Inverse folding.
């Protein structure tokens, strides 16, 4: 049995893939399993993967029957995970040589089911690197504390977790973007302890990444949020109603933020896309539990969760125009 299994979903990553695979091959923790899942790449990614698998038995190569997205690809790999713990590594990112060794040591020494890695952000444009600042003075947390910190990513979502826990909560496949956030939060919530280790994860930041791009897929965040709410409800967290209140407030803020983003970027979408986006807002608005939103928040202009989308849109547009007007200062005040 391997100590750690690493899942890497690959789609058209030939430019960065060798650096990713070399970082796995060079791990100081030799007792590891590397499952690489090619999601029907159309470049040379699959040939690169076969080359590594042919010379290193720790690499196991799988391929999806059709291009399905990272979550489905990773879940395919998760079925074959034999390690005591599971980690995720994207095909354009990489580990420091001792990442898995340090994570495994922390998990064992602290008897924790989940260890968060040190995240180093690598900026593709100029090559500079910055450590991700975890906005918490602690170095270990209860599962509920880690869940709360993950809502605004005060605690990021790159970690090593017990395989049994990961298989209990596989990757959320609701949509191609954002739903993997749900998996992280469920892992944190169901961990007795979450600890910080010194293993480094190098995360490549692209200016044109899908999560930053102005496309209709950005609004999949709303679907992912609803999926998380449904999963929390299914867990019957009656003794943790405050967590459900907290998540509903988070979901409401996210809906408001995306609506205001939509107002700013509306000209970027076709009329058909606008109809689809507004239909999604109307659908999601109907799922907001108003009783979970604090009255102090609902009394603020632009923050009341009206059930009618027409009414919501009317007041949000007034709020948006007022904010826009107030942001334009008269010339004699701007000097």
């Amino acid at each position: 049995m391997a100590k750690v299994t690493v899942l890497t979903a690959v789609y058209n990553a030939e430019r960065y893939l060798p650096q990713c695979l070399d970082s796995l091959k060079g791990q100081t923790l030799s007792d590891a399993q590397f499952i690489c899942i090619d999601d029907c790449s159309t470049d040379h990614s699959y040939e690169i993967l076969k080359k590594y698998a042919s010379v290193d038995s720790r690499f196991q190569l799988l391929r999806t029957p059709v291009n399905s997205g990272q979550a489905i690809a990773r879940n395919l790999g998760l079925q074959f995970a034999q390690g005591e713990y599971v980690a995720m590594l994207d095909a354009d990112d990489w580990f420091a040589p001792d990442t898995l060794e340090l994570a495994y040591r922390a998990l064992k020494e602290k008897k924790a089911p989940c260890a968060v890695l040190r995240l180093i952000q690598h900026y593709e444009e100029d090559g500079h690197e910055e450590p991700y600042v975890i906005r918490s003075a602690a170095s270990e947390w209860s599962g509920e504390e880690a869940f709360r910190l993950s809502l605004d990513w005060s605690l990021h979502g790159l970690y090593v977790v017990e395989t049994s826990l990961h298989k209990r909560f596989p990757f959320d496949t609701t949509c191609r973007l954002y739903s993997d956030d749900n998996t992280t939060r469920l892992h944190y919530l169901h961990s007795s302890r979450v600890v910080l280790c010194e293993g480094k994860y190098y995360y490549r930041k692209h200016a044109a990444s899908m999560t930053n791009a102005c496309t209709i897929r950005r609004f999949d965040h709303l679907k992912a949020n609803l999926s998380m709410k449904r999963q929390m409800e299914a867990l019957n967290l009656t003794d943790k109603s405050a967590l459900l209140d907290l998540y509903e407030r988070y979901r409401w803020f996210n809906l408001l933020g995306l609506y205001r983003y939509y107002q700013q970027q509306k000209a970027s979408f076709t009329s058909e896309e606008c109809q689809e986006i507004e239909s999604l807002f109307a659908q999601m608005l109907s799922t907001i539990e108003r009783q979970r939103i604090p009255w102090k928040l609902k009394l603020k202009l632009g923050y009341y969760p009206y059930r009618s989308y027409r009414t919501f849109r009317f007041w949000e547009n007034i709020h948006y125009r007022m904010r826009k007007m107030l942001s334009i200062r008269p010339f004699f005040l701007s000097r």
Remarks:
- DSSP finds 13 helices and ten strands in the chain.
- The first strand starts at residue 4 and ends at 10.
- The chain has two domains: 4-205, 216-327.
- Strands lie at 4-10, 32-38, 59-63, 85-88, 94-95, 114-123, 129-131, 140-141, 159-162, 194-205.
